[in-house]
Design a protein that fits this description.
Blueprint (H helix, E strand, L loop, with lengths): L3 E4 L5 H12 L3 E6 L2 H15 L3 E5 L5 H9 L10 E4 L15 H29 L2 E6 L12 H21 L4 E8 L6 H5 L4 H6 L9 H12 L9 E4 L14
Parallel strand pairs: 1-2, 1-4, 2-3, 4-5, 5-6, 6-7
Helix pairs in contact: 1-2, 1-8, 3-4, 4-5
Bound molecules: NADPH dihydro-nicotinamide-adenine-dinucleotide phosphate and 2-hydroxyethylsulfonic acid.
NADPH dihydro-nicotinamide-adenine-dinucleotide phosphate binds next to α1, β2, α4 and α6.
């Protein structure tokens, strides 16, 4: 066993692909998400395909007491967490600032920002104790530039960018690495969630170019996580070939 990886938001997309990538390479994986059935199915799949150890931890990252209760009760043999991947997150809607839904704003801030903070604080004592650990935060190109109708989603990812920089400074004394990964357009369930199950609108987002896949992003995360102990990638932006930044695409 190479180490223990804790991945939030592992029931889909990047998180699920990371769970498979790390498990396939000899890591034990702790998988989180709100959908228990999906966690159970993924756990069985990883155990069967990769013969890796899996601990399913269903909880909502935005609920402070759920986060701290779940992590406080992690079995002893799972407490030596080497890598935390703060991946759980979502966009809701693509509306103008003065027309957007306030509940959707709350959910994005509660999940993308507060969820990442709660999980990090709950896991950190296990890393601090060992003077070792790597926290990998999922930001976005939307956290590097804002786009029209991106308002609060972009704001939440700018917060991830700033919090990652701040964490890196404050955790330096504990020898804990902090990496922020900022993907561009990747075809996962992200747009389906953003557009509330409207599959036609979601697939429209990826027309005219080849988007990143969840596996592309997991490969990059795995690379960052497996560098020598003295090497830390602080900040990494990756996009599909036909995307230059958060706004500019070359679509055919
Ligand atoms: P998916 O929608 O495919 O996956 C999102 C995951 O987050 C799911 O497993 C979902 O699980 C989990 N999640 C959402 N809310 C919560 C919550 N409150 N508590 C626990 N888990 C939660 O999207 P992606 O894989 O694409 O997105 C992963 C991350 O990457 C997000 O932070 C997203 O903002 C970011 N990102 C995505 C990009 C893209 O183009 N796809 C580009 C850049 C960044 P469940 O519903 O079971 O709780
Ligand atoms: C997800 C990518 O461009 O839809 O963070 O905001 S984008």
């Amino acid at each position: 066993m190479k180490g223990i990886v804790f991945i939030t938001g592992a029931t889909s997309g990047f998180g699920e692909a990371c769970a498979c990538k790390f498990a396939a390479n000899g890591y034990s994986v702790m998988i989180n998400g709100r959908r228990k059935e999906r966690l159970t199915t993924l756990k069985q799949r990883i155990e069967n395909e990769f013969h890796a150890k899996v601990l399913a931890l269903p909880f909502d990252v935005s609920k402070r007491s759920e986060v701290f209760n779940a992590i406080k009760n992690i079995p002893k043999e799972w407490q030596a967490i080497d890598i935390l991947i703060n991946n759980a997150g979502l966009a809701l809607g693509r509306d103008l600032f003065d027309e957007a839904d306030l509940d959707e704003w709350d959910t994005m801030i509660d999940t993308n920002v507060k969820g990442l903070l709660y999980v990090s604080r709950a896991v950190l004592p296990f890393m601090v104790e060992r003077l070792q650990g790597h926290i990998i935060n999922l930001g976005s190109v939307a956290g590097k530039e804002v786009y029209e109708r991106g308002n609060v989603y972009c704001g939440s990812k700018f917060a991830v960018d700033a919090i990652s920089k701040s964490m890196r400074i404050d955790l330096l004394r504990h020898c804990i690495k902090v990496t922020a990964i900022h993907p561009g357009a990747a075809e996962t369930e992200f747009s389906l969630v953003r557009f509330k199950g409207d599959a036609a609108r979601a697939s429209e987002v990826y027309k005219g170019f080849k988007p990143l896949s969840a596996e592309d992003v997991a490969d990059v995360i795995y690379y960052c996580a497996t560098l020598p102990a003295h090497v830390c990638i602080n900040d990494l932006v990756l996009t599909p070939l036909q995307q230059a930044d958060a706004i500019y695409f070359h679509k055919k």
